Amino acid sequence: MTELSGGPALPQERRLVTAIPGPKSQELLARKGAAVAAGVGSVLPVFAARAGGGVIEDVDGNSLIDFGSGIAVTSVGSSAEAVVRRASAQLADFTHTCFMVTPYEGYIAVCEELAKLTPGDHAKKSALFNSGAEAVENAVKIARAYTKRQAVVVFDHGYHGRTNLTMALTAKNMPYKHSFGPFAPEVYRVPVAYPYRWLTGAENCAEEAAAQAIDMISKQVGAENVAAIVIEPVLGEGGFIEPAKGFLPKIVEFAKDNGIVFVADEIQSGFCRTGQWFACEDEGIVPDLITTAKGIAGGLPLAAVTGRAEIMDAAHSGGLGGTYGGNPVACAAALGSIETMRELDLNAKAKRIEEVMKGRLGAMQEKFEIIGDIRGRGAMIAIELVQPGSKDPNPSATGALAKACHAAGLVVLTCGTYGNVLRFLPPLVIGEDLLNEGLDILEEAFTQL
Ligand code: PLZ
């Protein structure tokens, strides 16, 4: 049992009292089918009643171990004390005035924190938005205004959102883009250093992928036409791909030499997720702009673009904004989330989660041939599943394992261009007993398969 920010009333235990999903969830699922658009899916149709720490309690009284954090959002747990306290107080004071009409302090305090926490000691400014996709769109707007150029370069396996521009930036057709075109123009995709699948071997990956990417940009687009290069320092939806060491610094150097704005999309990897405030710190990278969302506000919708003051100031007054951007309740929650990360040293917690997970997963790989690769950092860990004796993707085993985990009360997610990656994103405050119990369930699921 742990009380770490999970909300005192919620026991930190797995508890199954019905089948998964239970009867009340089934009822709600039927209502969902009738009232919610079919395009909006749910990974696991268990309806939440309460959540906190490392568990999600459903409407039937089951308590599930959470290895998903609502897709890397609730790093501090789903009911962190400081988030609830600060957001509730703000809610009682006022819900909204619109920062573009009559501003408020919380917005500025979040921007000040972002300036402190993001890499680099240059002068920084921020603008706040509601969702990750909106942050990425605005990063592109700002980079275009600053450079007076149009082209945007993105990478194989990249994911940046579901709006029109961010669909164009996203690599994978199904389910994100299929039937939703036409997409925004002036977007160019180049190779990324994916060590496990690099044809000439992982040891050549960084060098060759960077050379190919730079050659394509230079020859097909023209470096002088490129406003921004946008990349996730650890690629999330694409399969938790850590670009081979040396790749990112080469791309950053190329951007710098050619006056291109380098944008790190840390929407999934940021805010202690990988055991550092931001994943790009791992190779000492200082992005020109950084996009954040998800973990920033403990579950409330908030996103940001942060970067070099002179770039951030390039957009004309009134050129950036939105009715709800930097909503005061979300800002209060962000300050509570950041406070929790500092106070509980969640970077250290993430590193410990990596140690436990990689130890256990490594032992499983010895036993189960279909585990092709174990990768990721901190509490952003994944296994890539393949056909026995090859590297051919194994999406059916991936789906079956996820299903078995769900039935046993463990929330896990899949990802990857080939749908063959199981990813683990526990809240950073999860207790070690729950972490190990979750891994026991996974191991049992492999044994059963
Ligand atoms: N950039 C790196 O990971 C969101 C998407 C889930 P929004 N990832 C989860 C889904 O299927 O919609 C994400 C991301 C990176 C941008 C985004 C987009 O963030 O807040 O979902 O718009």
In summary, what is this structure?
This protein is an alpha/beta fold and 449 residues long. The protein contains 13 helices and 15 strands. It is globular and about 60 Å long.
Structural summary, described in words:
The protein is α/β, with parallel strands linked by helices and 449 residues long. It folds into two domains: 23-76 and 345-448, Aspartate Aminotransferase, domain 1 (Alpha-Beta Complex); 83-343, Type I PLP-dependent aspartate aminotransferase-like (Major domain) (Aspartate Aminotransferase, domain 2, 3-Layer(aba) Sandwich). Helices cover 37% and strands 16% of the residues. The chain contains 13 helices and 15 strands. It has helices spanning 23-35, 69-72, 81-93, 105-117, 132-147, 164-169, 202-221, 247-257, 309-312, 328-343, 346-367, 395-407, 432-448, and strands at residues 48-52, 55-58, 63-66, 124-129, 151-155, 187-190, 226-231, 261-265, 289-292, 303-308, 371-377, 380-385, 410-411, 413-415, 421-424. The strands form three sheets. The protein has a seven-stranded mixed sheet, with helices on both faces. Strands 1-2-3-13 form a four-stranded mixed sheet. α4 packs parallel to α10, α7 runs parallel beside α8 (247-257) and α11 runs parallel beside α13. The radius of gyration is 21 Å and the shape is globular. The protein starts with 22 loop residues before the first helix and ends with a helix. The relative contact order is 0.16. The structure holds ligand PLZ.
